[in-house]
What does this fold into?
Amino acid sequence: MPFGDLGEDAGATTQTVYNYASLSSNGVAVDGVPMYPSLNNTLLHASNAAEITHGGIHVGRGMELHYHADGHSYSKNGINLYNLADYEGRNHPPLIGMAYDGVALFGRYEENYGAMEGYSIALDEYGGHDHGDDFGFHYHAHTQEVSSTGNNAVTFDQRFLLVGAWKGKVNDIPGLLEVKTGQLKTDAIARYAGASYDKVTTNNSAPTITAATFSVADGAANGTLVGSITASDTDGDALTYSITNGNTGDAFAIGSTDGKLTVTTSAQVAYTTNPSFSLNVQVSDGALSASATITVNVSEGDDGSNRY
It folds into this structure.
């Protein structure tokens, strides 16, 4: 992550599910308000630092209104992101948000609604679980005992929305942790945040492959070299080869990187049953491909009729 994570930014030397998190929001609630990690920028739980209201929300460092904790769990006053009324007539806590890894966030399990789906299935360290039905893996708001550090160290119950780190695989998402203005630091990421950028044209050219005709002896042994396929790419890209059609009985194999065609099933290389093969061979540069017909004629064997 080129611009760091919450823990790294604050000088932490050990990664945890709390500090290995976005420097800004890590999800969005159903009311449109961003959700931030439980920890603030000094690695204190925002509630322990007395920075948030009983609704689990505040405006910090000029970064708009956002949640750090589950207000419903604190007060149950009926005016939070979700409330007890949202449990009536349902078999699962309500959907309350979406984490940026694409995993849904649901409300906490309430003690008076113990019959709800997944109630007895423990949450993992990311605050999620899968109870074996169509919900799949998902997060829940939950309460967990945590400890603060420093001169005023204390152990208390933190009311989590999202703990901080994501369970979902996010490494290949461009600029996911470079949020807010951080996304504008590099052109390669800025485009995903809506900034203007210069369009890059790759001009990738398709490879070329040459049709060919080879001959092979009747009953040639496995591993016999039949011929080498000729292909090229003007961009200098690495090429891969494959047989896509016509390989009756898997008679032949082709080297995926060198294009060498060899016998793999000797019994199929039989003049009496398969005198000729018409192989469709494809070459690819990873993005574009080309194909050609490679003909392999099986030479007629000597059955002894011409001997004296």
Observations:
- The longest strand covers residues 289-299.
- The two ends are 80 Å apart (CA to CA).
- Helices lie at 6-9, 71-75, 187-190.
